[in-house]
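Entry 14. Structure prediction run on the chain below.
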Amino acid sequence: MTERAVNWETSFLVEEEVMKKMLVVFLFLLLISTTTFAAGKVTLSWWTEWSADTWHQAVDQTVKKFNEQNPNIEIVPRYIENEAFFTTMRTAFAGGQPPDIFQHESYNQLFQFVRPGQVLDITDFCDTIKNRMITGSDISQRYKGRVWGVPITVIPWSQIFYNVDLLKQYNISPPGTWDEFLADCEFFKQKGIAPIAIGNKYGWMGSTFLYALLARWAGTDRVNLAVMRKPGVHWTDPDFVQSAKFFEDLCKKGYFSEGKVTDDIGTAAAQFAQGKSPFMHTGSFLVDIINSMAAPNFHYDVFPFPQIKGQKGDPREIAWMLEGLSISKATKYPEQAKRFLEFWTRPEIARALSTTSPATLLAIKGAMDPDKVKPITLKIVNEMLVPSTKKMALLDHTTPPEVGEENVILGSISVMTGDLTAEQWMANIEKAAAKYEPTAEF
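Output returned:
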């Protein structure tokens, strides 16, 4: 939707003075009812978890720019810390007081509000901007044949970051296979160095490690069949259990950092940035975190998640996550809210975002300026994202909360502490999944 001025041109030929007055009153009431912002500024609330560092600054600048270019609309953002975000959102929707516009992590993190009829259907609106989006991103916003959100950011999870100088010090090349990766981890462990920095206090760093393993060993198609509860496919199947065993083995062998279940992402990133661990697996956003805390002489790079001998997944399959924007059905100003969503998808706005936060990948075509994006981010795009043949969404996004959050995410903590085995972990996931209807479509 492009910005248009509202022009009213009317002419009346009336002889009776009374009729003139009636028409003036009618025109005035029509103007008020059809042009909301003509009567004054419209204020829209927007809630988001985009509250960290450089990306927060880029988002702030985008909101400011929109407000300046749309003087009759004011977007008032509320930045909520990541770990508290969806609890806050669920409470607001349950209480009948959601924001006008909200950011989400797509799939069931959006559809959980769609099913009760609390999200505005924007299918027709999205048809007008769909050519701006990268291929495959729209499925994350599509439910029951309708579109409920606009994809904005892309976060690949099938890469491992490594300390360049630490590997060079011991003449080690970035591993290409799982066996090589395990050998490198064992080498560093014997040197008294924790091989993999991780902060699984909230469970998601462990679960996303599992997702990368599932994409490799089982493959995206198999995972999607299990998500959709297709007959004959169960989370207790050997390929899913083996994927979990790969993760369990890392725990048993002591390859994760000491604070594996007490540290958060920030503490783990500091461990990595301070040269205390050679490897760290997480989303592409780590680049922004490291750049905000690491010394200028800290050199790090990235390599694709290792290939596993005998894997069923294509070597170019990846796990990824998409974040989007949606509109509450309760908003009084849906057209103004759509204008805000459209603004985010404009190529020039996307490029400005990418320039301000060069580690952030956007789901909008033409957003990336290769001359301004950080080389490590460009590498993730060119060597992992662009060549990917299939993309597996995160299970805590594609399954009900009782499955993805309570059993996949929190289960990863229990595996790390030794309270669950890989088999028990998958059995718990299967038991929970069997109780609920699928919440994603592929």
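The chain has two domains: 42-151+322-377, 159-316+399-433.
Filed with the rest of this week's runs.
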